[in-house]
Known about the structure:
Helices cover 46% and strands 23% of the residues.
Amino acid sequence: MGSNKPDDSDILVLRRGDKKVVCEILEKGECNKFTIKLEDHTIGNIINEALCHDPEVTFSAFRKPHPLRNEIEITMKPMGYAGVKLLADNIISLADDVSNMRKDFIRKVQSFKAKKAFYDDY
């Protein structure tokens, strides 16, 4: 009996010739639809949330077309700007935020360990 589970290579590896991100311009509503392969709800929700807070974006939505296909779609309507640039700028900003959170976390863990070591001496 067959399984409907996707092959591991389809989930983790981009096939030769495939693009990670494909942008399609939708005539209806002048929107950009980005199909992003090898991603799921986690990154889709984060990117969509950032786009929703961007004042240069009129509309943003995210969906995962099928639970067994490892891709997401983000649709956005930019206000006079190139949608690809807006998406890239928001992703760069998110990466900076994650980097800053990581540095802050490491600093706080080190501070905690230093305090704990100080009190362990007594």
